[in-house]
Each structure stands twice: as C-alpha cells, then as structure tokens.
Amino acid sequence: MHLLQSIDCAVENLVVINNGRLPGETWAESAEANSHIKSVIVHTQENTGVATGWNRIIESRPKGPYWIILNDDIELSPGELDRFNSDLIGTDDSIAVCTVAPAGLALMGVKRNAVECLGRFDENFWPCYFEDVDFLKRVTASRRFELATFPGYSSRHSMGGLASVRGMQNCIEENERYFKEKWPTPENPWAHPWGGEKLSHWHLDLERRARLVGYLGC
Fold first, then answer.
1. Residue 152 CA to chain centroid, in angstroms?
2. Is residue 73 part of a domain?
3. Interval 172-181: pLDDT, tens
4. pTM, 2 dp
5. How many independent structural domains does the chain possess?
6. Average pLDDT along the chain
C-alpha cells in the first residue's frame, strides 16, 4: 500500500496485479484515495506469476505507447515517477526498456514497439526470477533495441524474501534450467532462442507449470 500512497503525479490508468495476496477491494480503496490516480483496474486472480502479471498490464492497455511497471515493494522518492515518465518519453525508438539505478527492473518502462517485435514476457518462468533476464536477452539479441538506465535516481527496491520461501529454490533452479535450454551458450552463439525460433516465440508448458506449482504446494 505504501507504493500507492507514494504516487505523486498524474496517472491516467493504474493496473494492479494482486496475485491473490490481498483483497482486491483493499488495493482499489487505497488507489482511489490518491487524487493523482484517475482510473484503477484490479486483477484479483490467483498467483499466476510475475510474467503473467506483467502481460496482464500490457493487455489491459494494449494501445499505450509504453507501460511503466513497478514492484509493490519499491520505495519511490518524491517526484521521481513523474521524472521517470518524462525521461522515458524522451527516448528514441531504439530503446526497448528503461530503468533506473539503484531500483533496477523493479521500476521499468517497456515500449510497445519493442513488445510488438520481441513478444511479451515468457510465462514459463514461474512464479518469478528470469522472466526479466529473458526479455532483456531478447532485447540484446535483436541488435535493434537497447536498454537505457537513467542515472541520478534515489528510488530503491526493498527486495522481498521470496527466495527463502519453501520450495522457491526448486522453482529458481527450474527457471534457470529453462533459460539455459532456451538460450545458446557462448560455445553455440545462435541469435535466437532454441537455435532458430523467432525472438518472440514461447509456448506455455502447462506440465512444467504444474510441476512448479507443486514445489510451492499451491
């Protein structure tokens, strides 16, 4: 809730991906209490993972020129969300993803032209870890887009303790294994995942998802 309270600039459309953590009404009420936020969409589905959540944001406003995506545990410094928005708008079409130091990808801007070319986030990474690395791999492999990191920001990512959750280490190892299977090694420097597919290609593996869900006992 602290994140919603710290938004201090005009936000036309706010999309909250709840992932079953808190009642949707709680998020909506907190957002509506902030006069800077004009409209709110709350997804209260079960925990479908970070990648799916980010894709839901994109799907909610598919015609937007870009999407600013924030983790709920980021600590926004006053004025920096508005500044980030301005910096993002100021980039050219070669920039696919924008972020800041030291918050990293907990605060990022994703361009629509990049998503149209590189595809959405791979939902086989579940519940989290490697989905952002995979997308950035596509950015660099494209040789068309780049990542921009804006300096001089003080917003920070407080970092949750998900890695210590029972069964999470198994999920991280599975995600890492999937990432290595998908992308080439230095000895086999293919430009595309799996040695030949389009950069945007991924197919949701429901058997793999069931195995990951089982690790966490969901």
1. 22
2. yes
3. 999 999 999 9
4. 0.91
5. 1
6. 89
